[in-house]
Amino acid sequence: MSDSNLSDQHQTLFLHTELSLLSFHERVLNMALNPKTPLLERLKFLCIFSANMDEFFEIRVSGLKAKAESAVSGESFDGLSPQLALEQISVRAHDLVKLQYETLNDQVLPELGDYGIKFLARDDWNIEQSKWLKSYFKREVLPILTPIRLDPAHPFPLTINKGLSIVVDLYDPDRDDSHNIAVVPAPRALPRYIRLPEELCDAEYEYVFLSSIIHSNIKRLFSNVKVLGCYQFRITRNSDLYVDLEEVEDLARTLEGELPSRLYGEAIRLEVSENCPGRILKFLKNRFQIHDDFIYHVNGPVNLNRLITLPDLVNRPQIRYPVFTPSVPDNLGPQTSLFETITNSDLLLHHPFQSFAPVVDFLRQAASDPNVLVIKQTLYRTGSESVMVQHLAAAARSGKEVTVIIELMARFDEENNLSTAQTLQTAGAHVVYGMVGKKTHAKMLMVVRREGRKLRRYVHLGTGNYHQANTRIYTDYGLLTSDKEITQDVHEIFMQLTTQGPNPDLSKLFQSPYGISDMFVERVAREADNARQGKPASIIAKVNGLSSPSIITSLYEASQAGVKIELIVRGICCLRPGLEGLSENIEVRSVVGRFLEHARVFYFENHDAESELFLSSADLMPRNLRNRIEQCTPIQDPLLKEAVLENLKKYLKDNTNAWLMQPDGQYVQAINTGEDATDFNAQNALLAHYSDTY
């Protein structure tokens, strides 16, 4: 199919990116609705949905809003204008938020009460609890509150992004404007829910929301006027950072100056208590200049995602996912030299089913080994107090040449990455901020070691970040190898990153920008040629997002040629499967479960030759394929390749956490069919396969 024909039919062929992402958030919410999900995990999924929606409005909706307000904005590649997309998002998002709070109030909180975990409304407090909470307010809350009664001398305070605030409706008969308003911002230092002393409670765990405590004591803040009511609200702001990289001389210093602006960007969404009266709502609406489509009335805490810490505070293992211990490959012991192991054969790790500890040990051994001369690593997200950063700093202090490529523009991790950069620079490491205008998203760690008269390179290449906490909840692969061509390729990419050079010629790896996209399209075309010749042809791809028009076009053409295409796409998918004459040979499924599916894997059958399987840091999205430094690594060992392929087949067999995409972009759950059908959960099967403790 020619590009001209595709462009004429784009409305039919491509789905809208943001609407597709919203569908993923809906699938996350469905984990909270599912009674088979353990109860405390259902609460977690409600919180994760809230956090997802926060970022959706901060970045995606704010971007669409800017396009809609731009005189030059037009249709996107799916044929939907920004304004029409915003209208459709509003309808769906309001329905999802309503369902979220109905699930919280009608199912999750009442069922938690059956397990001795209760959140008490003000009407439920007994006399002793009321006394304790009044004392708590006086002791812990009142000293750090700043209530502001509005008048010309006291303007509306700056409300920070996603911060809890209370708007207070006041009546003062001695003033001309007898009805007036006050605002009480809740300091972020205060916990959003407080546990009552056990001796005052009927249940083991009883909590009260901070907003309820402030509400019950609001008259103490405004003793000279009548309080008619108070209502919690929360503003979500545009949180994208706009940095003109061509004009910036010092990116780190510029980011330090820009980060505070994220707290006070343009107001995008208003969440407010559902009982907020119209007069107060109108005031807030006008104050923040927010359209009705972006106002959300909620029956519960407006900052629901702060409840995500609760499961770790209560001792109720029976309503959580079973505990598991990540396994370690049999050939790795406490005293194993990873250099010797990797010299003998490649080592592939599958997280979180297998431990991330060997990767940490690889860096630890390199940092302390006197024969190691050079360590180079990319860091996109690491988390605070990263053990890997500590090992890098120790290596630098010991005199090794340590070079770290830190991506300062990793969204919402900019501040932590600035701190990491300072830590490493202080230790003596060379810190580089990547390529101008292109985020460094590749996951690479290289060690250069002197062995006799030669220097030997060892590398770790992954699909996920060097973030230890995430390795317990994200599914990812990591390859440790000393293959000469692969390690040479990694060396070339590091040289490019530090010298700002063009894409190097590589032997085995593929690299974005453009290299991974070209590789993928070429191999899809090869499968299509095989199918046209009557040969078996198949493709399996597992990614987090698929929105590249050129990739989608190539898959459509392969489907028309008869290639069997199985796509496991966690989030955004702009391809439409199952369209007669176009994509009837394409199946798209999304797996949403206990762990966040994060690994990127590409498999090509390549009949009459050796099949090919790649692990990649890149999704099949324009930003990854054109505007980022990414790496894509072949798995060469036949046993490792077969192991990854078997894992992919588990996901294709899943009928408990899998959702099947329909031609119109909607998803239906994959379910058992037939009398003998049994439930199959891919993540549980992988836990059982890798771990002896599950």
Give short descriptive properties of this protein:
single chain; 3 domains; 21% strand; 8-stranded mixed sheet; Endonuclease, Chain A; 694 residues; 10-stranded mixed sheet; 37% helix; polyphosphate kinase like; alpha/beta; globular
Description:
With 694 residues, the protein is an alpha/beta fold. The protein has three domains: 3-319, Polyphosphate kinase middle domain (polyphosphate kinase like, 2-Layer Sandwich), CATH 3.30.1840.10; 338-508, Endonuclease, Chain A; 511-690, Endonuclease Chain A (Endonuclease, Chain A), CATH 3.30.870.10. The protein has 20 helices and 27 strands. The strands form four sheets. Strands 14, 18, 19, 20, 21, 23, 24, 25, 26 and 27 form a ten-stranded mixed sheet that branches. Strands 10, 11, 12, 13, 15, 16, 17 and 22 form an eight-stranded mixed sheet that branches. A hairpin with a 2-residue loop joins strand 15 (444-451) and strand 16. The longest helix has 33 residues, at 82-114. The two termini are 49 Å apart.
Nutshell version of this structure?
This protein is of the alpha/beta class and 694 residues long.
Helix fraction, binned, reads 25-40%
Number of domains: 3
Question: From the helix content, strand content and strand pairing, which structural class follows?
Answer: alpha/beta
Biggest sheet overview: 10 strands, mixed
The CATH architecture name of the largest domain reads 2-Layer Sandwich
**Contiguous helical run count:** 20
Shape: globular
Question: For this structure, what is the CATH homologous superfamily of the largest domain?
Answer: Polyphosphate kinase middle domain
